């Protein structure tokens, strides 16, 4: 959008003493003529931009107008850069690359070595091991329909294997516990629902557009059901010595107690098929002490697995 480009140009000129029109044109993928039209528009808005010709010339903001301090500190810029680079590990788009380039242009040559050290101090790779091409394609598709506020229909297979058609208003893509979800308002249920991307198929995009509903993302609305006290089950697990590294990784030190030479984990999770599979992945490294019905359920599932491979 033009307004975004104008604002970005002003921010760049505030932070840099001078920049070439060609450099701006390459950055925003427009012509030099378009950049000069943008400069004229900025001037008309009351921000004094000056241009100088010849070698050493370029575009700058009148010195008297220059801000004494940057809008963002070096630490803040480094934090934003690290966040964008981490997001790009699982979702690469032109916009993220352009944003990173703009931020780097805000850093002076003198500050660059220190800035690079700050951005290389952390890197958070949130992509899954062996993430499928299909998931990436769905992420790109849902990104577009969310931007355009398109109503979509989809076929969804729930965790019990039941298939149903849904017509939804897509609002947010969520990466949770290494899996991608779509947070959308379901028109059949008249409520927000959480859809796991690997369970979605047969997506159809309608030309109909919806008015975005208010979502308080900072409150993590998709977690309200998961953490309701009535849905939680307290478990007591005996951790074998071979399983202590895994237990520390999954449950944390605070959940472990040591008594009479034994390691006990006290944790709480909602009880469903996910929980049984989660417990089975520990194999013989843990033993479920309580509650008895979950101990029995996992025992039965383990026997079914054993019987499957004995036939």
Automatic annotation (TrEMBL):
Top-rank taxon: Bacteria
Assigned keywords, A-Z: Transcription, Transcription regulation
Domain HTH deoR-type span(s) in chain numbering: 2-60
PROSITE patterns noted in UniProt: HTH_DEOR_2, WYL
Pfam assignment, any one: WCX
Keyword Coiled coil: no
SUPFAM superfamilies: Winged helix' DNA-binding domain (SSF46785)
InterPro entries: CBASS_pafABC_assoc_protein, DeoR_HTH, HTH_11, PafC-like, WCX_dom, WH-like_DNA-bd_sf, WH_DNA-bd_sf, WYL_dom
Keyword Transcription: yes
Listed name of the protein: YafY family protein
Organism: Bacillus changyiensis
């Amino acid at each position: 959008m033009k307004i975004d480009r104008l604002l970005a140009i002003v921010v760049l000129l505030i932070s840099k003493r001078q920049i070439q029109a060609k450099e701006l044109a390459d950055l925003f993928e427009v012509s030099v003529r378009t950049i000069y039209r943008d400069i004229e528009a900025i001037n008309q808005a009351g921000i004094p931009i000056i241009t100088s010709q010849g070698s050493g010339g370029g575009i700058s903001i009148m010195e008297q107008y220059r801000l004494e301090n940057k809008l963002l500190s070096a630490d803040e810029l480094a934090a934003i850069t690290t966040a964008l680079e981490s997001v790009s590990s699982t979702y690469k788009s032109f916009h993220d690359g352009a944003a990173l380039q703009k931020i780097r242009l805000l850093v002076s040559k003198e500050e660059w070595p220190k800035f690079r050290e700050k951005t290389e101090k952390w890197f958070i790779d949130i992509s899954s091991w062996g993430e499928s091409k299909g998931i990436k394609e769905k992420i790109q598709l849902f990104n577009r329909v969310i931007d355009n506020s398109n109503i979509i229909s989809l076929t969804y297979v729930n965790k019990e294997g039941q298939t149903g058609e849904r017509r939804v208003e897509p609002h947010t893509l969520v990466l949770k516990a290494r899996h991608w979800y779509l947070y959308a308002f379901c028109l059949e249920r008249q409520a927000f629902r959480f859809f796991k991307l690997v369970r979605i198929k047969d997506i159809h995009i309608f030309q109909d557009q919806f008015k975005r509903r208010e979502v308080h993302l900072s409150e993590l609305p998709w977690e309200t059901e998961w953490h309701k006290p009535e849905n939680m089950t307290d478990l007591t697990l005996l951790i074998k010595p071979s399983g202590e590294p895994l237990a520390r990784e999954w449950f944390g030190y605070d959940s472990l107690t040591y008594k009479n030479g034994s390691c006990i984990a006290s944790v709480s999770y909602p009880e469903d098929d996910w929980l049984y599979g989660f417990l089975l992945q520990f194999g013989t490294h843990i033993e479920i002490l309580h509650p008895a019905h979950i101990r029995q359920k996992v025992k039965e599932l383990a026997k079914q697995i054993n019987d499957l491979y004995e036939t």
